[in-house]
Design a protein that fits this description.
The chain has 387 residues and is an alpha+beta fold. It is 48% helix and 10% strand. It has 14 helices and nine strands. The longest helix has 29 residues. It starts with 6 loop residues before the first strand and ends in a 6-residue tail after the last helix. 40% of the residues are buried. It holds the Pfam family HD_5.
Length: 387
């Protein structure tokens, strides 16, 4: 039997064991697989359906869904958070704070406390939705690159500071420094992100001096934490003395952390004038570069988020193009959703794939510009409330 209607793909959490199906199920071509009322009794049946791709008619799905009584709902605070929307709100607030403080510190009373509050919100966002928060680094629009880049860096700084068992005060200071490291370059970075011409002498000077100027601006805005100020002043220094503005060769661990995450996020996020590296290649290249200085932070980052972190694009052995939605564990590969099939056709709905099966294993990473089909972020991550 074939049908001429809109089909919707089902995700893993939409098929339930020991419960009568509320709809007929079809394959991608519209052929009937199972009839309404059929009862799935084994996990293997569910896995088999998801792997091949299973669909329902849109009108049937809208007419009836399972009663929401099978599992307890998460706390209301978790249900209300859209991590991708929250990131945009944080970016808007941070941009306003940095621009006002750079132009006239008197416009932003309690500046340090307000940046600290943003750091606290990011920390909580990582607690509730770490995989989705990481995915935003690789997937969301970076038209606001200067601000989002600082937020991306701050997220990774927060993650690694926790893993290194830093106390809350030191971790918070490093995150605040990452959020404010480019305060002296906010407007200039917006121009540079779009500019295709070579840098002018004035622009080169602005780049070289922005760390020290940024520290001065923060001090004028009321920041008195010397570690915060030092991180901002030194975040472009390099352990071999080739950095700027002072050519230092000794960096404290907090400065090194912000510097390293700053470089990584710049590699994996695109601008108008620069394509992003694929995540695996970026991590490998940076690991080799930093290993020359004895910097072990890239290795720690890879251990925590993997070569294929949430939000990165991958090609599967069967030819599907998929997006990683959950980090690998010590015993399992990353969890992925296919959204383009092996024939290069977009799927109606992202489909979970079991990457432990040979045909769905990750074959390679893909750079962001290689994929033009948009991923519906909430369709993937809202299905996994703790992602």
């Amino acid at each position: 039997m074939q049908i001429q209607t809109q089909l919707l793909g089902l995700a893993l959490n939409q098929l339930r064991i020991d419960t009568a199906l509320p709809w007929n199920l079809y394959d991608e071509a519209g052929h009937l697989l199972l009839t309404k009322g059929f009862i799935l009794v084994r996990n293997a049946q569910v896995d088999s359906l998801i792997e091949r791709g299973v669909f329902v008619r849109e009108e049937d799905f809208k007419l009836y869904n399972y009663p929401d009584v099978v599992r307890a709902a998460p706390p209301p605070a978790e249900l209300e958070i859209d991590p991708f929307r929250m990131r945009e709100l944080i970016a808007s607030k941070l941009a306003l704070l940095l621009r006002d403080a750079a132009h006239d510190p008197s416009l932003v009373p309690d500046f340090a406390a307000k940046i600290g509050e943003i750091a606290r919100v990011l920390h909580k966002l990582c607690d509730l939705h770490l995989d989705a928060t990481l995915a935003a680094i690789y997937l969301t629009d970076h038209a606001k690159y200067p601000i989002l880049h600082s937020i991306d860096t701050a997220v990774l700084v927060d993650l690694l500071a926790r893993k290194m068992d830093w106390n809350d005060a030191r971790r918070r200071t490093a995150v605040c420094a990452a959020l404010t490291m480019n305060i002296a370059m906010i407007d200039a970075q917006t121009i540079l992100a779009l500019q295709r011409l070579p840098l002018s002498a004035v622009q080169k000077e602005a780049i070289t001096t922005h760390p020290a100027q940024g520290a001065d601006m923060l001090r004028a805005a009321g920041v008195s934490d010397e570690l915060w100020l030092r991180i901002v002043a030194d975040h472009h220094e390099v352990p071999d003395g080739t950095g700027y503005p002072a050519g230092k060769t000794t960096l404290d661990d907090a400065t090194l952390l912000v510097r390293t995450m700053d470089i990584y996020t710049a590699l994996v996020t695109p601008r108008h004038t620069k394509a992003a590296s694929d995540t695996a290649q970026a991590a490998r290249n940076l690991f080799v570069q930093e290993n020359k200085y004895g910097n072990t932070l890239v290795g720690l980052l890879i251990k925590e988020i993997g070569l294929h972190p949430p939000g990165s694009y991958v090609k599967l052995k069967n030819g599907d193009i998929a997006v990683v939605f959950k980090r690998a564990s010590a015993t399992t590969p990353p969890m992925v959703h296919s959204f383009i099939n092996g024939k290069g056709l977009p799927m109606l709905e992202p489909m979970w794939r079991d990457a432990t099966r040979p045909e769905f294993a990750i074959a390679s990473a893909l750079p962001r510009e290689a994929v033009t089909t948009k991923v519906d972020l909430l369709k993937i991550w809202s299905a996994h409330p703790h992602a």
